[in-house]
Each structure stands twice: as structure tokens, then as C-alpha cells.
Write a structure and sequence with these properties.
The complex is a heterodimer of chains A (886) and B (150).
Chain A: H1 26-32, H2 43-58, H3 65-76, H4 84-97, H5 101-115, H6 120-133, H7 136-150, H8 155-171, H9 173-176, H10 180-187, H11 192-206, H12 210-220, H13 228-247, H14 257-263, H15 269-280, H16 287-301, H17 306-322, H18 324-327, H19 331-337, H20 343-356, H21 362-373, H22 378-394, H23 399-411, H24 416-432, H25 437-449, H26 454-467, H27 475-487, H28 490-506, H29 511-521, H30 527-541, H31 549-557, H32 564-573, H33 595-602, H34 618-627, E1 640-641, E2 645-646, E3 654-662, E4 666-675, E5 680-693, E6 698-703, E7 705-708, E8 714-721, E9 730-742, E10 755-760, E11 764-766, E12 772-774, H35 780-786, E13 793-801, H36 805-816, E14 819-820, E15 833-842, E16 846-856, E17 861-870, H37 873-885
Antiparallel strand pairs in A: 1-3, 2-3, 3-4, 4-8, 5-7, 5-9, 6-8, 9-10, 9-11, 12-15, 13-17, 14-15, 15-16, 16-17
Helix pairs in contact in A: 1-2, 2-4, 3-4, 3-5, 4-6, 5-6, 6-8, 7-8, 8-11, 10-11, 11-13, 12-13, 13-15, 14-15, 15-16, 15-17, 16-17, 17-20, 19-20, 20-22, 21-23, 22-24, 23-24, 23-25, 24-25, 25-26, 25-27, 26-28, 27-28, 28-29, 28-30, 28-31, 29-30
Chain B: E1 9-13, E2 19-24, H1 32-46, E3 56-60, E4 63-67, H2 70-75, H3 82-87, H4 89-99, E5 100-101, E6 104-105, H5 110-117, H6 133-147
Antiparallel strand pairs in B: 1-2, 3-4, 5-6
Helix pairs in contact in B: 4-5
The chains are: A alpha+beta (886), B alpha+beta (150).
Chain lengths: 886, 150
């Protein structure tokens, strides 16, 4: 090559010296490429230059249009050489350069000549190159040769033509479809790969013809396929046919199951795996059908080949999500995989075991995982931590060993995300299992003694302040908290001061000591820390700044009851004056956020990451908002709040949406209004509701909004009474009434006189779904089995034509207002059948579970079989009524 | 709809994770820097595995990475080091071309691949002898796992 290298025997240190491409430069190589134009072609030299060009492209270098064209033209000259090695390189570089259509003309004749060459290798490669670079018109010219090539006696040529057909099908389907007969012949080929490529192409050609695919599968499953790869394809196509047939209501014995089952005894491992996977993925697979597949997968778990172990454990891991009981037989083999050298296999094994393990095996499992945790990457550890969190919720009695495990790994090295996952898990366990609280809090205390993450330290301190004072011996936490004041950065010190104050306030006996500690903090170097300490000292000292215990308590523990965004806006608008800033002037309603923000919020983790601070949307926020209004306190406990329903079009003068709050015998409509006109001030904003189409409802009271300035949302309320515990439904029409006052935009002052006006809003409905609360279950199957089968109600519904199955599924979920379980809300693209699992609590606190099976036929008509189980059979019937009337 | 199984890319990296030869067949990594980032993550993830004697497999996000040296080992006469690989880069490019065409598996037998790529100018027809089914069976296993990538 360019720099002939003398091989050094003694040292390998000087890596650079060994690269034949050291210091290679595009300009120089392009210069070298002129050698292609020499009248006497030197094949060896030219091959080397092409390799260099390929090397440059491969390293991410790009050629300009001019450079590429120049290289392409000179490369075409090399066709005159008879050297086969060089010809191969020429084919390669042409494909890499991807010439434009006007340039292609230059090489087509050479390539067509090669396509008819006696040398097989030329034929095969010329086909692949040509099919890569030509367009439709040229394709018709060479179609004849391609059809010949498909049935060529040399399998390499045949495969080249078939694979090219697969690529061309995307751009020129109508041409490729004409090759069916030749392709069909290819399926009978003695060559395994030709059979594989032919089957793939024939299926692609016929993919939109359900009947043809079904026929193809029907004839091939009778056993003419020899290639294992082709057999794997056939298994996939068979699964597709099975799904289609199920959607067309063909019931009875599952067609082709016997074929899949027979493939489990095939001699090629890949076929066995493919068949096992296909069986486990059958819709509504029964345990009788599953058993043989699980058995072969279990055998692969102890295979010496990592690839087989991986494939088997991956499939079993998926099965464990839906049929954990079916996989328990493999638990022993699975446990031995925990120590597998391959970490992907080990992690899959562990997460499977965490799903299938029973209560008695938890401790043994934890012991094994402990040994394994130290040498896997953080991302795997997070998977394990999350699995353990759900295990703990599932088996609360086992919290001790799980908590020990979590506290142990908390002490080990790890990145922020990993540590946060552990802390979140501990917090969840503390919240869910009261017995775990004291030990959990101590583990967190020990963690902050040596925690490098400010965020986690402050979050834990906050959590300690809320939970710590209510424990049997709050004083033992003080040391950990006060240590922070000595040892940490200002942010953590400030958080520690707040936490100390909470202890001082809640635990009378600690108050004097806390006061001493806080006094030391007023000399802190950071002003925030000093300010907080001074403030809290005054609260604790009761020196008259605050009057009552209640106020101090609200101050220390109450969360900010206005959204931070609104607070920020109001503070920015506040101009220093005689009048103090009034927090009550801050609007409490959250403006509807842009979609992106909502999404970002949706990703927030639970546990510590979701502090209970000041949401005014969401259930807690609504509950707080409603309980702050005296008229509503007598209604009892809030059962459910709906999502906001828009009552105005986007971009109108006044934007109004409504939230329906359901109480046992009342319904409160919360109208969120926004004035989008800068020149107007609205006053006495009220909503007049006509409930003539809602017979069971009678209006009790309404609460107008006194003032609605520009771009500052506010709420009006209307309250209806309804029969207690009854899921009454009805339709309400709404009119917004108000007084408009002109505002001078320059001064911001409103005129004294206003004009009464009204604005028609869209209708609002209270539907049955409003009486259903989304409550998930951790294990649907267990929950399902725990409800009495006697009380099950089944019925079938025709849902009419829909664009997709997903649309129908979503409509039913929305109608019922229930929580989807086990990820069944996601529907595979182009699926023709789907089973959706739903759970919820119906008004009257009745647990309801629904299993909805959907199927779609070729005319996109959708049918649904709905199976409902509820703690109260009348509720199961009510669910059917909802669907029947929806 | 079932599409034929597709390979997303094929990578040959050196002992430091640097690119020796790569070929991408999907648009998942549209830019060179995206490709380099992917190669780096594959490398960090797999550097501890030893695929010299046995095909190894790693799950990486939603992709499955299969390590295999078969064909390259045969080409370079069991002497896979960077120098050797770079000296024979033309053969490596050719073998990539023989293994996969636009993402579709073209050939699975390491011997056949090495034979077709290692072709020399005096013997044009010899390496194209028809492979036997048993040969294909012998090395098809790793490609099964590749095909799982979809």
C-alpha cells in the first residue's frame, strides 16, 4: 500500500506506525485516483486506491458532488480490466458513490454485459449494483434478465436477484409483482438461502392479499421448506394468519397450532426458538398451549451457547409479564443464570424471577442478587431496584429483607439516577408500609451523612421533616439533621434548618433544644440559612409575630396553595408601593400548559421526585381548592375530578374549560375562565346552566367570579344536587354572563361603567365514566381471580367501522374512564385483535375489573367482547349499560 | 405486517472502540456523529464480553448486539488484530458486502463468506461453489439472533 511498512517484531506499542492509512488525506487520495485514467490499468494499484476511498467514506468523510462525479467517471474506466479482484472493488465503490440518474447511464451497458457474463460472480454482483442504482424506466429494460436470474442454476445469482427484488418492491412494486412465477420456483430451490429469499419476496408481494398469504402458509406448512431461515419466516407468517383468522371470528380449534407445535421438535435451534416465541405470543394463549413451548425454552436456559440462553430468557421474561405462573417451573434454571457471565442474560433472569417468585423465595432471591449487584452497570441496577419496589408492594410482609437490600446498595458506589431510584423506592415503601417507616427513615439518615447529591439530600431532609416528628423517638434524627448544618453546602444547610424547625414545632419536648441549635445557625455565612433560622426562631418562640398554633403549623407544613408559575408572574408584576404584596391576589388556577411542558411533567418520577407541593390541578389540588371554599365543605369527600373539558374553541375571546367534581350526592362544575382581551376587564363572571336535559340534577348554588382581568385565569363554580350514590347522567347547556369594562392599555385602568354581556359556551355532559375512578391493580390476574366468577357479566358489542383498532380501544377506555393495566393500552401497529385489561373503582367504592377483547375484520368493522367482574354484580351490569348506551 | 428480518448495521471496531470498518443499513443513525456515539455505546457495553470463541449477545436499548468473529477470523487466518484488519481492509469491505445486502442477510456461512470475499484474481470461479445446507446450518445460529432485531 502507500507506505510499505516493515513489520516490527519487538514492540506493539507504537500503534500508529502500524496503520497503513496513517495520515491519509482526502485531497491526496483524489489525486491518486487519477491512476484510474491510465491507459494501462494497474489492477493492484487501483484496488489499493479504491480501498483508500472506501476507507475515507467509511470514516465519515464526504465527497462533494464534483469530487464524487469525477471519481465515478474515472472508476467506470476500470471495467476494461479483466482482473476480477479489481472488478469486485469497482462494484463496491459504485454502490458507495450512489451516482445520480444521469450518471448511471455511463455504467449501465458495462453492468448489463456483466449481468450476462459466464462468470457467476460477475452476474450476481452486477445485478445487485444495477438494481441499487437504476430507476423505473431502466428497470423495465432489464426486467427480462432479472427474471432469468431468479431461476439461475447458481444459488448466489438467484439470491442476488431475489434480494434485489425485495429492495425494488419498495420503489417499483408493479414491476416486481410480475415475477411471482419465478419467485415461486425459487421457493422450491435446493439452496437454503434461495428458499429463504424467495419466501420473503413472495410474501412481500402478496402481503396485502389475506387469502393468498393464508394459502401460501397453508401449502408450505405441509412441509416443503428445508431452510431453517425460511422455516422461521414461515412461522412468523403463520402467526400473522392465525391472528387474522381469529379476528374473523373463526372459532373452535386454533388453526395451525399443530404446525407451530411440531416446529418445537425441529432439528435447527433457531426454528425451535422461533416457534416457541410464536406460541407464547398467541392471543389468549392457554396454559395447555404454552406448556410445550415453555419446556423447550427451559432446556435452552442451560445451553452452553450464550445466544440461545439469551433468546430463551428474553422470551420467558416476556411470558412472565402475562403468565407468571407458567414460568415458575423454570425458576431453578433461572436462578442459576443470575451468575451468568453475560450480564444481559443475568439481568433478564433476575427481572423474570422477581415477577414469578413467590413470597417464600424472596429472601433467597435477595441474597443471590446481592452478590451480583456489585459488578453490573447502573442502568441494570435501576431495573432491579424498580422490580424490587414492586415486589415490596406485592409482598408487604417481606419488607424487612427488601429494605435491608435497598439500604445496602444505597451505601455502595453509584451514579445519581441509580441513587435516586433507590431513595424513591425506600420512600414508596415507607409510605405504603407503616411498619417500615422507622427503619427506612434511619437508612435515609445514614445515607445523607455521606451523600454527594445536593438534590437528594434536600429532598430527604424535607421528607424527614414531615415523617420524622411522628415517630416513636423523634430525637434520634436530630443529630443527623444538625450534622448537615455543619458539613454541607448552603442549599442543604437551609433545608436542614427548615427540617429542624418542623421537629421543634411538632415535638414539644424537643423545642428548647431545637431553639438552641437554630440560634447557632443565625451566624451562618449564607444569608438564606440565616434568614430561615431567624424566621423559624421567631415562629417557635411565639414572640407575637404569629398568633396561633394553627398559623405556625400552616406556615411550616402547609404547602404553597398557589401555583409557582402564577406566583412568579404576580411577583414580577408587583411594583413596590405602600401596599404590601397580597398572596391572595395570586390566581390559583393553573393555566393550561403547552403540550411539551405537560409531557415533561408526565415523566416525573413518583416518590421523592413528586413532592406534594402546591398542585392546583390533579386530584389533591382540586381537593384542596374545593375544601378551601366554605360552601362546599359539607359535601363530604371528593370522589373524582374529571379532566378539564374545553367549552370554547381555541383562540376565542374568552377561554373556558370545565372540571366536573363528583361527590356522593353533589356535582360541582368548576369553570376555569381566561380573558384573552387585553383591553377588557370582566366582572361578576357567572355561568348560567340549563339542566333541563339532566332530570336527576337540581341546581343548589353557584359562585361567581368577581373579577377576571386579562390573562389571569379564575374560577366560577356551579353546584348541583343529585340522588346519593347514584351515577346520574345528563346534559347541561352553559352561558357565560359577565360585565365588560374597557381598559386603557397604556395605564391599565378600567373604566367605571361596564356593559352586561353574555357568551354562549358549548354543552357539557355528565357521563357514566365520571363515576369511575382510575385505580390500577399490581397483578391483574390475581385481582381477577379474587373476584367471584359467579358475578361475571359477558356480552358482545359491534363497534362499527373504525380507522384502526387503536381508535376503538381508546374510545372504550375513555367511555369507561378506567385504568389500563399491564401495558395493554399499547396496541401493536396494524394489529387486528387486542385484549385490553382495565381496572377501576365505581361510585360507592366498588372495585371493577374489565377484560375487553377487540377484533377487526377486513372491512374494518370492530367487534368487542366485554367481560366484567365487580364486587357488586349490579355494578358489573351498570358497566354493560354504559357501553350499550355509549 | 411482517417484514423480512433486517440487520441495522455491522461494525468492526478496534480494541479501543475506534472504527475499523462499519456499514449502516437503517436510518436510525442519520449522521456520522450519531453513528460514532452508537459505536461508542456498543463498545463500552461489549468490551468485557469475549466473543473470540463463542458468539456473544448483548441487549442495548431496543437493539440486540451480536458479537461474532467467524468470517473475519477466517479471512485473516485467525490473526485478528488491527494492523492485520487494516492491511486487509478491502477484504473486510467485500465480506460485509457478501454478508448483507441493504440490511437483508445474504449469506450466513462464514466459510462461504470468507471464500467469496477472499477471491483472488487467478481463480475467479472457485469460491462460488455451491454451499451445502449443513454449512449454512452451522453458522446460521447467530443470524437468528440478528433476525430478532427486526
Amino acid at each position: 500500500m502507500a507506505q510499505p511498512l516493515v513489520k516490527k517484531d519487538d514492540d506493539h506499542d507504537d500503534e500508529l506506525e502500524y496503520s497503513p492509512f496513517m495520515g491519509i488525506e482526502k485531497g491526496a487520495v483524489l489525486q491518486e485516483a487519477r491512476v484510474f485514467n491510465d491507459p494501462q490499468v494497474d489492477p493492484r494499484r487501483c484496488s489499493q486506491v479504491i480501498t483508500k476511498l472506501l476507507y475515507l467514506l467509511n470514516q465519515g468523510e464526504s465527497f462533494t458532488k464534483v469530487e464524487a462525479t469525477e471519481v465515478f467517471f474515472s472508476v467506470t474506466k476500470l471495467f476494461q480490466s479483466k482482473d476480477t479482484g479489481l472488478r469486485r472493488m469497482v462494484y463496491l465503490i459504485i454502490k458507495e458513490l450512489s451516482p445520480s440518474s444521469d450518471e448511471v447511464i455511463i455504467v449501465t451497458s458495462s453492468l448489463m454485459k456483466d449481468m450476462n457474463s459466464k462468470i457467476d460472480m460477475y452476474r450476481a454482483n452486477a445485478i445487485r449494483v444495477l438494481c441499487r442504482i437504476i430507476d423505473g424506466t431502466l428497470l423495465t429494460q432489464i426486467e427480462r434478465y432479472l427474471k432469468q436470474a431468479i431461476v439461475d442454476k447458481n444459488p448466489v445469482v438467484s439470491s442476488a436477484a431475489l434480494v434485489s427484488g425485495l429492495h425494488l418492491l419498495k420503489t417499483n412494486p408493479e414491476i416486481v409483482k410480475r415475477w411471482s412465477n419465478e419467485v415461486q420456483e425459487g421457493i422450491q430451490s435446493r439452496s437454503a438461502l434461495v428458499q429463504f429469499h424467495a419466501l420473503a419476496l413472495l410474501h412481500q408481494i402478496r402481503q396485502n392479499d389475506r387469502l393468498a398469504v393464508s394459502k401460501l402458509v397453508g401449502s408450505l406448512t405441509r412441509g416443503s421448506v428445508r431452510s431453517p431461515l425460511a422455516q422461521c419466516l414461515l412461522i412468523r407468517y403463520t402467526s400473522q394468519v392465525i391472528r387474522d383468522m381469529a379476528n374473523h371470528g373463526q372459532s373452535g380449534e386454533r388453526p395451525f397450532y399443530e404446525f407451530l407445535e411440531s416446529c418445537l421438535r425441529h432439528k435447527a435451534e433457531m426454528v425451535i426458538l422461533e416457534a416457541a416465541r410464536a406460541i407464547t405470543e398467541l392471543d389468549g394463549v392457554t396454559s395447555r398451549e404454552l406448556t410445550p413451548a415453555i419446556t423447550v425454552l427451559q432446556l435452552f436456559l442451560s445451553s452452553p451457547r450464550p445466544v440461545l440462553r439469551f433468546a430463551a430468557v428474553r422470551t420467558l421474561n416476556k411470558v412472565a409479564m402475562t403468565h407468571p405462573m407458567a414460568v415458575t417451573n423454570c425458576n431453578i434454571d433461572m436462578e442459576s443464570l443470575i451468575s451468568d457471565q453475560n450480564r444481559s442474560i443475568a439481568t433478564l433472569a433476575i427481572t423474570t424471577l422477581l415477577k414469578t417468585g413467590n413470597e417464600s423465595s424472596v429472601e433467597r432471591l435477595m441474597k443471590q442478587i446481592t452478590n451480583f449487584m456489585s459488578d453490573i452497570a447502573d442502568e441494570f441496577k435501576i431495573v432491579v431496584v424498580e422490580a424490587i419496589r414492586s415486589l415490596c408492594v406485592k409482598f408487604p410482609l417481606k419488607y424487612r429483607s427488601l429494605m435491608t437490600f435497598l439500604s445496602n446498595i444505597l451505601r455502595e458506589e453509584g451514579g445519581f439516577e441509580y441513587k435516586r431510584a433507590i431513595v424513591d423506592s425506600i420512600v414508596t415503601i415507607i409510605r405504603d408500609i407503616p411498619d417500615a417507616k422507622e427503619s427506612g427513615l434511619l437508612h435515609l439518615c445514614e445515607f445523607i451523612e455521606d451523600c454527594e447529591f445536593t438534590y437528594l439530600s434536600t429532598q430527604i431532609l424535607h421528607f424527614l421533616g414531615i415523617e420524622g416528628p411522628n415517630t416513636s423517638d423523634p430525637s434520634k434524627y436530630i443529630r443527623y439533621i444538625y450534622n448537615r448544618v455543619h458539613l454541607e453546602n448552603a442549599t442543604v444547610r437551609a433545608a436542614a434548618v427548615s427540617t429542624l424547625a418542623k421537629f421543634g414545632f411538632m415535638v414539644e419536648s424537643l423545642k428548647p433544644r431545637i431553639t438552641v441549635l437554630l440560634k447557632r445557625c443565625i451566624y451562618d455565612s449564607d444569608d438564606e440559612v440565616r434568614d430561615r433560622a431567624t424566621l423559624y426562631l421567631s415562629v417557635l418562640g411565639g414572640d407575637g409575630t404569629v398568633d396561633t398554633d394553627k398559623e405556625s403549623k400552616d406556615f411550616l407544613f402547609g404547602s404553597l396553595d398557589v401555583p409557582l408559575v402564577n406566583m412568579e408572574t404576580s411577583l414580577k408584576n408587583y411594583e413596590p408601593s405602600e401596599e404590601a404584596f397580597d398572596i391572595n391576589s395570586v390566581p390559583k388556577e393553573v393555566k393550561s400548559q403547552p403540550l411539551a411542558e405537560k409531557k415533561a411533567q408526565g415523566k416525573k418520577p413518583t416518590g421523592l421526585g413528586a413532592p406534594p407541593a402546591a398542585p392546583t390541578s390533579g386530584f389533591d389540588g382540586y381537593e384542596k381548592l374545593l375544601s378551601s371554599i366554605p360552601e362546599f365543605t359539607a359535601f363530604g369527600k371528593l370522589f373524582k375530578s374529571s379532566l378539564p373539558v374545553e367549552l370554547t374553541e381555541a383562540e376565542t375571546e374568552y377561554a373556558v374549560d370545565v372540571v366536573k367534581h363528583i361527590f356522593d350526592s353533589h356535582v360541582v362544575f368548576q369553570y376555569n375562565c381566561t380573558n384573552t382581551i387585553p383591553e377588557q376587564l370582566l366582572e361578576r363572571v357567572n355561568v348560567i346552566v340549563d339542566a333541563s336535559e339532566a332530570e336527576e340534577f337540581s341546581e343548589v348554588t353557584s359562585k361567581a367570579l368577581n373579577s377576571l382581568p386579562y390573562d389571569s385565569p379564575g374560577q366560577a363554580f356551579v353546584v348541583f344536587e343529585k340522588p346519593a350514590g347514584v351515577p346520574a347522567i345528563g346534559k347541561f347547556s352553559n352561558t357565560l354572563t359577565f360585565v365588560v369594562k374597557e381598559v386603557d392599555p397604556s395605564t391599565g385602568e378600567a373604566e367605571d361603567d361596564g356593559v352586561e354581556d353574555e357568551y354562549q359556551l358549548e354543552d357539557l355532559e355528565v357521563v357514566a365514566g365520571d363515576y369511575m375512578v382510575k385505580v390500577g391493580v399490581s397483578n391483574f390476574r390475581n385481582a381477577w381471580d379474587s373476584l367471584d366468577e359467579e358475578d361475571e357479566r359477558v356480552d358482545e358489542y359491534g363497534l362499527g367501522q373504525r380507522d384502526s383498532l387503536g381508535e376503538a380501544v381508546k374510545a372504550v377506555i375513555d367511555l369507561l374512564g378506567m385504568q389500563t393495566c399491564e401495558g395493554t393500552e399499547t396496541i401493536p401497529l396494524n394489529a387486528r385483535s387486542h385484549t385490553c385489561l382495565l381496572s377501576g373503582v365505581y361510585i360507592g367504592n366498588v372495585k371493577v375489573l374489565v377484560r375487553a377483547q377487540f377484533g377487526m375484520d377486513s372491512s374494518k368493522d370492530i367487534a368487542m367482547k366485554l367481560t366484567v367482574r365487580a364486587e357488586d354484580v349490579s355494578v358489573a351490569e351498570a358497566i354493560h349499560e354504559i357501553v350499550a348506551s355509549g | 405486517m411482517e417484514l423480512p428480518p433486517k440487520v441495522k448495521n455491522i461494525l468492526l471496531l478496534d480494541s479501543e472502540g475506534k472504527r475499523v470498518a462499519v456499514k449502516y443499513y437503517s436510518d436510525d443513525w442519520p449522521t456520522n456523529s450519531a453513528q460514532e456515539a452508537f459505536e461508542k455505546s456498543v463498545f463500552t457495553k461489549t468490551q468485557k464480553t469475549n466473543a473470540r470463541t463463542e458468539v456473544e449477545v448483548t441487549a442495548l436499548e431496543n437493539n440486540i448486539v451480536v458479537d461474532s468473529f467467524d468470517a473475519v477470523t477466517l479471512l485473516l487466518r485467525s490473526n485478528v488484530d488491527k494492523r492485520e484488519a487494516l492491511d486487509n481492509l478491502d477484504l473486510i469491505f467485500l465480506s460485509f458486502d457478501e454478508i448483507i445486502d441493504g440490511g437483508i442477510v445474504l449469506e450466513t456461512d462464514a466459510n462461504v463468506i470468507a471464500g467469496k470475499a477472499g477471491i483472488n484474481s487467478t481463480d475467479p470461479n472457485a469460491p462460488l461453489s455451491e454451499q451445502t445446507i449443513s454449512q449454512a446450518l452451522a453458522t446460521a445460529r447467530e443470524h437468528l439472533t440478528r433476525s430478532l432485531m427486526k
